[in-house]
Amino acid sequence: MIAVQTDRLPWHHAVWDRLIACHRRGRVPHAIAVTGSAGLGKSAFARGFARALLCLSPLPEGDGCGRCRSCSLQAAGSHPDHYAVHPERDAGGPIKIDQIRQLIDFLMRSSQYGGYRVALVDPADRMTLSAANSLLKTLEEPPAAAVLLLVTSELSQLPATLRSRCQRVQLKLPAAGLARDWLATHYPDAIDLLALAGGMPLRAIAYTQAGVGERYTALVADLVAIAHNRQSPVLAAQGWTGTGLREWIELLQLALAELARAAITDCDADRISGSAQLHMLSQAIDCSHLHNYMEQVTAIRRAADQPLNEQLALEDLLIGWRTAVRSARAQTMG
Ligand SMILES: [Zn+2]
Q: Cα(143) to centroid of ligand 1, in Å?
């Protein structure tokens, strides 16, 4: 997602301590699936653990020292006992069987430094089925002193047979106070987007860097204007054409989720701007109409993977929104 300077984040401590305890007892699992929602720092955690496994003089809490020859080689990306596989082109692309075959060759070699060999696949859910299956064969008879780290926020996308060979390490959502304190120190600009990011600090940072806050506020303003008949759905759709349909639908889904939440809780001050408006809107639409509309949005989002007319899709979505609000209103009046 984004590069953070620190590898180990405050909400990783408990999981980290458990893994380091395994390491000290010489009982590191052969395959570890590092899981949890996107935006919790899974990649950073896995990198940090790889460094801890290879470091020649680890720090008291088990972290790599950052100074020994092993840590320096890792930092330079040239440690002979460390191997990382990522999608070849963009982050959403596949990890192919040839890449996994090279990783398996690496795991089968003997260690150059006499310690572990550590391989990382990130994100592991991008492996093609044949790539995942070839990895499975290796895990059935794991080579000695080799550790495979699979990083994924979509564990269910991995074949069940592969999952069952992995020790699962789940990163959990930080407590709201902890996440806010950490952002206040590192990326104060992102605090306002923490709620929108579902409490995941790194996602809040990514949102900030991508200008998501501004677009979200503009989208909420459009939803409010359409609900109050101050804006036509078709004109609003024109304003969004060319800005990226998939991402726009994600923002719409965030707004609707917030709307659903606002319907059952009181608006709190931590929420992003626009939520006061959403809160008022939540009283203009009932749960069943909101639910039906959310299903319509989900269906269009699925279709957005196929090439489709962006302007038409935006119009459909915004007209659907107006219909949902109007139906709710008609029902209330009737
Ligand atoms: Zn070191």
A: 24
- Tell me how far the alpha carbon of residue 79 lies from the centroid of ligand 1, in angstroms: 12
Long-range contacts of 139-145, Cβ-Cβ distance < 8 Å, separation of 24 or more? 139/30, 139/31, 139/165, 139/166, 140/165, 142/30, 142/31, 143/107, 143/108, 143/117, 145/111, 145/115, 145/116, 145/117
> What kind of architecture, by CATH, is found in domain 211-333?
Up-down Bundle (1.20)
**Per-residue pLDDT tens for 15-56?**
999 999 999 999 999 999 999 988 899 999 999 999 999 999
Report pLDDT digits (tens) over 226-257.
998 999 999 999 999 888 888 899 899 988 98
Domain boundaries, the chain: 10-172, 211-333
Task: Between 304 and 61, name the one with better pLDDT.
Answer: 61
Question: Could you tell me the distance, in angstroms and rounded to a whole number, from the CA of residue 75 to the centre of ligand 1?
Answer: 10
Please identify every residue whose CB atom is under 5 Å from ligand 1, which is an ion: 55, 64-65, 68, 71
> CATH 3.40.50.300: does it fit domain 10-172?
yes
